[in-house]
Amino acid sequence: MRIVKLTEETRKDLLDHLLKRSPNNYGKFEASVQKIIEDVKVKKDEAVFEYTKKFDGVEITENTVLVTEEEIAEAYEKVDPSLLDVIRKAAVNIRIYHEKQRQYSWFDSQPDGSLLGQKVTPLKRIGVYVPGGKAVYPSSVLMNIIPAKVAGVGQIIMTTPPGKDGKVNPSTLVAAKEAGADAIYKAGGAQAIAALAFGTESIPKVDKIVGPGNIYVALAKKAVYGYVNIDSIAGPSEILVLADESAKPKYVAADLLSQAEHDEMASAILITTSQELAKKVSEEIEEFLKVLSRREIIQKSLDQYGFILVAENMKEAIAAANEIASEHLEIVTKDPFEVMTKIENAGAIFIGEYSSEPLGDYFAGPNHVLPTNGTAKFFSPLGVDDFIKKSSIIYYSKEALEPIHKDIIQFAKSEQLTAHANSIQVRFKEE
User: Would you say the pTM of this structure is higher than 0.85?
Assistant: First the structure.
């Protein structure tokens, strides 16, 4: 793994390099995605089934697109009971964590007869996209559905591409049932996103679409934003480890590789104040690569987006970490809590040598759907807030409005909005 001295130039070059992974840079796919979306808008089910046959190699009809209770029961029979137990334990942790995020309506009345407030309303129907094919991520099913359930969403629709046998992976189905999905449809890719955004004869239109996917899914979500809401346009996974000489090289190397195995565009970065640690971590990575099953993917990821940056001091290291704004940030230093207080930009922060990234991916409870490609500077992890909307409440009695009505009239006239002014003035003309 390449070791580079952290300078202003190398930091800028790295940021430019990482941003090339953003879905916003894949315009060459946008035309084909837009064609799929337009086809689904017009032909609805017919287009969804045609694209499912083309891309997934399986015949799906209006009679088989919805996963049945019998298929879910069959999935329970196929899933290892010990895995089911782990799914249920993780679901409890995720639910408890997200219940602490729940927001409530509030109202504040004043003696003058005014009342202001905020009404919190869950979304009526949301769509959760779950990748299929070789990728099986029951953890993502839990992370996307449970916060929506906690928020009180009326109906949770899940779509996922079927296998060539026309069925959905059993662990995906079990996780969806445990999390509380109301309906599961066999549809994937851009055609599934379009179906959720506009509705078909079989798949209902939703108010918001969440969940990860490939570049076609990401671009489709971008294209339908405005017709429906979306969580984000996620890029490839990434990890940044912030470490000093106290860190164990083997642990750091293992954690970097845990993200590099996701795909060839995943990013794994170590920023350290120790040249010796940098060297040892690089050596440990080489040893791990000899035994890890996804070493070809890992090697390509590291070759393209793997870096070890050596900083002059921790202040410089922290500044670079804040600039990169990584999806996952691990702090492995002598005083990680003190360093944590200086971190401004990160999707999820893992503190100490026993809080490795997979703990958050699977089990701890905080959401693993996180901002990527530097968007942690202004985006947050998926949570209950993503599944609610807020309405402002305003009530004034005549007695409350009278003392201030001339102020409002003056403000409106200053903007040359005389109808605005009149709307207030008419209520006091007789006086």
Answer: yes
